[in-house]
């Protein structure tokens, strides 16, 4: 694949993504300074992930905000395909979703698609994806959502609720349609072909508008859902998209849960965090200290810096100092990595304690079919 090309689909991300191009390709809207102002006016503040373009694109977010200001409430929906253990990249949209839930005081549904990952991955059994669904749910709960307002839907467990909605949706999607959107072929199993209707179902679980924070790779599913919505007499889901989180070993592809070395899992020990970052984190530094002092580093391609920007350093002033010092050569790669190691360790040690407690809370979060 030529270096200026990229692919973004729900099951495959490749190449270095040009997000402005992707907005055009997908037909979404950029989050402009005006949209940011509107969010700030409604919530009283902006989140650093918005200010820094980690959430960069949307569909009809403005309608949701306008309606909200007029007193029409919405609910939130996001999800996770349990194909492996949770890594720090997964937490990005969840942490942002938590902020939205607090600011707008909304209900939230979190879908775990154990069926999807069983269909999509040759080597995974349904038992394995169900086990990962449970493990992923612990990480989600550990972030501190309120059980009264937050429900976890597991596809194979909550099918009684999902199926009647999915059936409404499925009837309005034809095979040519999904083939065109997802590139399915004659060899694709029919579970995959039906699957979009199940990912659509939680959009219509409450009789009010929905806002979905999600990785931009998931947009194609909801493009389909948005086409279907008026045909079943419902409002189109609104979306807010985050960028793909780079793997430790470098840009060009999202952090994949199946690629051990390039991935920091939420259950990694301080020793593992340190080892992985020191050994694998792609560096924007120069080959020698001498050159680095002279030429400076490149924070824009340095993964340690990017992790601080995307997640681990919410303080804009501190982040800017790191950026400037690294770029000027004052800060060395080892020093930058040490900052990240400290931040990740501090976060994960606390997260792991909350994750243990989540084992006793999970029942309260699981959606109960009526
Ligand atoms: N298909 C998603 C994944 O593989 C999981 C998912 C289900 C999801 N519903 C969602 C993601 C809603 C974002 C929003 O990760």
From TrEMBL:
GO terms for cellular component: cytoplasm. GO terms for molecular function: ATP binding; tryptophan-tRNA ligase activity. GO terms for biological process: tryptophanyl-tRNA aminoacylation. It is an enzyme of class 6 (ligase). Keywords: Aminoacyl-tRNA synthetase, ATP-binding, Cytoplasm, Ligase, Nucleotide-binding, Protein biosynthesis. It catalyses: tRNA(Trp) + L-tryptophan + ATP = L-tryptophyl-tRNA(Trp) + AMP + diphosphate + H(+). It is found in: Cytoplasm. Its main location: cytoplasm. Its EC number is 6.1.1.2. A motif ('KMSKS' region) lies at residues 254-258. InterPro entries: aa-tRNA-synth_Ic, Rossmann-like_a/b/a_fold, Trp-tRNA-ligase, Tryptophan-tRNA-ligase_arc. Belongs to the class-I aminoacyl-tRNA synthetase family. Catalyzes the attachment of tryptophan to tRNA(Trp). This is Tryptophan--tRNA ligase. It comes from Candidatus Nitrosotenuis cloacae. The lineage of its organism: Archaea, Nitrososphaerota, Candidatus Nitrosotenuis.
């Amino acid at each position: 694949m030529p270096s200026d090309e990229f692919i973004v689909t729900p099951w495959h991300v490749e190449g270095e993504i040009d997000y402005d191009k992707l907005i055009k390709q997908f037909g979404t809207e950029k989050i402009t300074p005006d949209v940011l102002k509107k969010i700030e006016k409604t919530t009283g503040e902006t989140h650093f992930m918005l200010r820094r373009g980690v959430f960069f694109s949307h569909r009809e977010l403005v309608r949701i905000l306008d309606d909200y200001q007029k007193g029409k409430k919405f609910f939130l929906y996001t999800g996770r395909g349990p194909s492996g253990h949770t890594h720090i990249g997964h937490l990005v949209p969840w942490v942002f979703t938590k902020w939205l839930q607090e600011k707008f005081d909304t209900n939230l549904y979190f879908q775990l698609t154990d069926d999807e990952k069983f269909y999509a991955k040759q080597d995974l059994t349904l038992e394995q994806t169900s086990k990962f669904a449970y493990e992923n749910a612990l990480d989600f709960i550990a972030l501190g959502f309120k059980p009264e307002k937050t429900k976890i839907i597991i596809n194979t467990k909550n099918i009684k609720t999902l199926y009647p909605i999915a059936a409404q949706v499925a009837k309005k999607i034809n095979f040519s349609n999904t083939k065109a959107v997802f590139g399915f072929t004659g060899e694709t199993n029919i579970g995959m072909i039906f699957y979009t209707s199940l990912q659509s179902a939680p959009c219509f679980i409450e009789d009010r508008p929905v806002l979905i924070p999600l990785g931009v790779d998931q947009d194609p599913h909801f493009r389909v859902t948005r086409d279907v919505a008026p045909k079943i007499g419902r409002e189109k889901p609104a979306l807010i998209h985050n960028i793909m989180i780079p793997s430790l070993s470098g840009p060009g592809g999202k952090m994949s849960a199946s690629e051990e070395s390039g991935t920091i899992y939420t259950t990694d020990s301080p020793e593992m965090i340190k080892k992985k970052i020191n050994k694998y984190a792609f560096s924007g530094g120069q080959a020698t200290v001498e050159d680095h002092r002279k030429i400076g580093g490149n924070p824009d391609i340095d993964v340690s810096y990017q992790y601080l920007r995307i997640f681990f350093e919410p303080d804009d002033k501190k982040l800017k100092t790191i950026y400037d010092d690294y770029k000027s050569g004052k800060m060395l790669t080892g020093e930058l990595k040490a900052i990240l190691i400290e931040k990740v360790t501090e976060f994960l040690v606390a997260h792991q304690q909350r994750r243990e407690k989540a084992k006793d809370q999970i029942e309260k979060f699981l959606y109960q079919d009526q």
